[in-house]
């Protein structure tokens, strides 16, 4: 099956506002606002196997669709491998963006962002960063991005997420993307992987939903199944969905993505965890 990879180059809607959380070129955040009133904040982290040749732009259609449905959406950029990123810069950037964005967007758009915890969402390598970001208070002392207190996050939505950095390295996925990010493998840098790999960290402490197609050719679903099963997380398997369908509002899988987001963002709509679901 051909991938819906054209979303990487498809023109998307422009953000309503762009903000800075640092002085470097990649330390920016795009924001999309609901048409009226205040929206639940959704922080969305892009993928691309942490490489500089993929940026946040391909998530514009996703962000605009979320905003059209009443959410306030923020898509941070961060330094990536090939242009100043990798360990530890990618992690310190993402941590700074997650911490700064709620106040930045609320200041840029008064009355348009609901107060309270955000939902973290991430696609592919961004899914890795969303899972990691929600557990920053559980990182080892001195780890890049560590917080002393739990981050203000309501739930995590992982869209075809990279859940296991060590296995991603061992399999050489995307021409060694994990090794490029971490400066080598877990044998060379065990402390780095202990501080950055969701598979090495405790189970998520907030409601977490993972969505992925079994035929995903970029992130093997067996890694997602193993991670979800180990931690009792809800995994929704989407038959016929490729790696990019979970971030494409034009894809048949999109209603399932929206339902999962609602279950995390809207109080009272959480569903039981520790289950794997496939379409009827």
TrEMBL record:
<dbReference type="InterPro" id="IPR050300">
    <property type="entry name" value="GDXG_lipolytic_enzyme"/>
</dbReference>
<dbReference type="InterPro" id="IPR029058">
    <property type="entry name" value="AB_hydrolase_fold"/>
</dbReference>
<dbReference type="GO" id="GO:0016787">
    <property type="term" value="F:hydrolase activity"/>
</dbReference>
<dbReference type="InterPro" id="IPR049492">
    <property type="entry name" value="BD-FAE-like_dom"/>
</dbReference>
<protein>
    <submittedName>
        <fullName>Lipase</fullName>
    </submittedName>
</protein>
<feature type="domain" description="BD-FAE-like">
    <location>
        <begin position="39"/>
        <end position="222"/>
    </location>
</feature>
<keyword id="KW-0378">Hydrolase</keyword>
<dbReference type="Pfam" id="PF20434">
    <property type="entry name" value="BD-FAE"/>
</dbReference>
């Amino acid at each position: 099956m051909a991938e819906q990879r054209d979303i990487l180059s498809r023109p998307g809607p422009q953000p309503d506002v762009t903000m800075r959380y640092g002085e470097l070129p990649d330390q920016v955040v795009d924001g999309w606002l609901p048409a009226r009133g205040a929206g639940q904040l959704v922080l969305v982290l892009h993928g691309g196997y942490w490489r500089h040749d993929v940026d946040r732009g391909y998530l514009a259609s996703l962000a605009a669709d979320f905003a059209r449905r009443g959410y306030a959406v923020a898509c941070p950029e961060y330094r990536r491998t090939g242009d100043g990123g990798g360990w530890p810069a990618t992690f310190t950037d993402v941590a700074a963006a997650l911490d700064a964005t709620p106040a930045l967007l609320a200041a840029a758009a008064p009355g348009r962002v609901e107060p309270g915890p955000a939902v973290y969402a991430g696609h592919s390598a961004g899914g890795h960063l969303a899972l990691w970001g929600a557990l920053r208070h559980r990182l080892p002392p001195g780890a890049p991005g560590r917080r002393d207190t739990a981050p203000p996050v309501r739930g995590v939505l992982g869209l075809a997420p990279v859940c296991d950095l060590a296995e991603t390295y061992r399999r050489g996925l995307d021409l060694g993307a994990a090794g490029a990010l971490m400066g080598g493998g877990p044998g060379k840098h065990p402390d780095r992987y202990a501080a950055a790999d969701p598979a090495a960290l405790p189970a998520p402490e907030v409601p977490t939903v993972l969505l992925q197609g079994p035929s995903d050719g970029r992130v093997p679903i067996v890694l997602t199944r193993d991670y979800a099963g180990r931690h009792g997380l809800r995994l929704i398997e989407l038959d016929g969905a490729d790696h990019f369908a979970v971030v494409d509002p034009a894809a048949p899988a999109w209603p399932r993505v929206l339902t999962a987001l609602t279950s995390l963002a809207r109080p009272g709509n959480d569903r039981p965890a520790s289950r794997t679901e496939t379409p009827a």
